[in-house]
Design a protein that fits this description.
By secondary structure, the protein is mainly beta. It has one domain: SH3 type barrels (Roll). It has one helix at about 1-10; strands at about 15-20, 25-35, 40-45, 50-55, 60-65, 70. The two termini are about 15 Å apart.
Amino acid sequence: MIKEMLRAIKQQQLIRVIYLGNNGQTTIRVIRPLEVEGNRLKAYCLTRRGPRVFAINNILAIEPMVNGRAV
């Protein structure tokens, strides 16, 4: 999964993630990953319209996006 994140960072590609939040709820987010730092992913979240930091262990799935659509 980290490999896909690093590829998206290098290619400046949007990805859609299924994320398990601290409250136990899953959310689907469209993000622009910026940097992997340790076990965290720094990204700009288009869903929430702001910068976010995601725990990599809580990312359940990743899907690359092309032209606003999942690939």
